[in-house]
Design goal:
The structure holds two protein chains of two kinds.
Chain A: E1 7-19, E2 26-38, E3 42-46, H1 53-61, E4 68-73, E5 76-77, E6 85-88, H2 100-110, H3 115-128, H4 144-156, E7 162-166, H5 174-191, E8 194-199, H6 202-208, E9 211-216, E10 221-227, H7 242-261
Parallel strand pairs in A: 3-8, 3-9, 6-7, 7-8
Antiparallel strand pairs in A: 1-2, 1-4, 4-5, 9-10
Helix pairs in contact in A: 2-3, 2-4, 3-4, 4-5, 6-7
Chain B: H1 2-31, H2 44-56, H3 59-91, H4 93-106, H5 115-122, H6 126-150, H7 154-162, H8 167-178, H9 180-201, H10 210-219, H11 223-251
Helix pairs in contact in B: 2-11, 3-4, 3-6, 3-9, 3-10, 5-6, 6-9, 7-8, 9-10, 9-11, 10-11
Classes of the chains: A alpha/beta, B mainly alpha.
Chain lengths: ~260, ~260
Amino acid sequence: MNPDSIAKISVSNLSHQFQIGSDSKNLVVLNDINIAISKSTFISIVGESGCGKSTLLRIMAGLITPSKGIVEYENKKVSGIDPNLGFVFQQDSVFPWLTVAQNIEYGLKARRIARSERKNLVDHWCDLVGLIKFKSAYPKQLSGGMRKRVDLARVFVNSPSVLLMDEPFGALDVQTKHDMQEVILDLWNKTKSTIIFVTHDLEEAVFLSNKVLVMSSRPGQISSSLDINLDYPRIEESRISDSFHAAKQLLWAEMKTARLNSGK
Amino acid sequence: MKKFLSNLIRPSLLLGGLSVIIVIGFYAYVSSRPGVNASLVPTPAKIIQTFASEIASGELLNNTKASLARVIAGFLIGSSLAILIGCVAGWFRIWGYILNPLIDAIRPIPALAYIPLVIVWVGIDESSRIIIITLAVFKPCVVNARAGMQEVAQIYVDAAKTLGASAFRIFWTIAIPSSIPYLIAGMRTALSTGFLALVAAELIAAPSGLGFMIQNAGQYFRTDVVIVGIVVIGIVGAILDQIARMVGLHLTSWSDVRKT
């Protein structure tokens, strides 16, 4: 069997409920989710706000234990935090009391990597995200876009084979967001990691991914799956091509269907 | 930059100096009114004279040294114990269950209420005075340390977790640094309550100290000496607070919170 066809990470029969208030009424957030994602895929999950896409991602990261179902990484059950899975949050999660270099070094230290190797890796990743001059700066001295680069480098430096990203560029302005999208495609190309990217921005999903999952809400479930057959590398100009628009329109139609199916 | 700094410092010095001068001026006016007993309300000139003679005799310096040593000893013991206990109680849930009732129970008790017990149990010596100050310092420090731990942003904890940090590493590298502003605030409050307890602690038959000096002078109606003692406590306390503030600013230079 072709090893590439084996799912890198998969979710089977996954359901999740939240308890609301003190009464025993439960809100079903996710209902019977099944996903299998193969190696080196860039997959986006889109859906209106409240559809449970962030919860799904947090469950995959081991930050939340699901009510039912399992997450498997290379056919092994994920329980708790797995060092092979990296996570990028929407909020600014760069530690303000550490410098850029110390932030990037954080995961390496936690994994007890030798000092000399840590230094090389930190330098390498500072360079890759264009922050070598800001190595010893504190986050408060950086712009929002630069802090996001620190965040990405801090996760990528641990060479996780799967990256889970929860609307990482949601808080950035459009220009910075476009820059960061090219940065992430470049990093993806260099590391060949598998990326699962949650967003509500359809253009972002089309620009980045080779596959998009559309979710409907109440309860959250996978409504449809769409392949984006556009060539890489994708650059700023790709956004104005006809094929890009066609893909965006197709995704928009899927979103509309998902919205109509929500709450049923 | 230089100009910016001088602009920043000047109004603060000017206005700060002005408020001190107004208070002294008002006191000078009251003390020089006809009919005011000069031995009960000494004039500023008389107070300065007493200050000079107390320095010349070496008494003031000895008393200041003795008090400072007690406050610093009590502060170091009290604040380090409090930070340790407060952080553990605020961060680790099980320890919180165990320690919170004790911390909440000591909150309303003034440190001075322990004085009779300390005298009976420990006796009348230097250690009993330091224990009183330690108890006074402990309370604000432990409450602030615990509050700091409870306010640690979840996002940093989650980020550290997904980067592979162990529970202890998260405590040490996330919870502690992010609650430094609370620890500093607690220590500054603790310094001032330490001085508060000092005077009371030196009531316990102290052979020296600013509190002793004030008590002793009061019994002989030497109000000038009492005022000198009060002013010196104020000045020494303010200097220590400034030092604590500078250390705090240095330790939180990464923070973008407004500095005042």
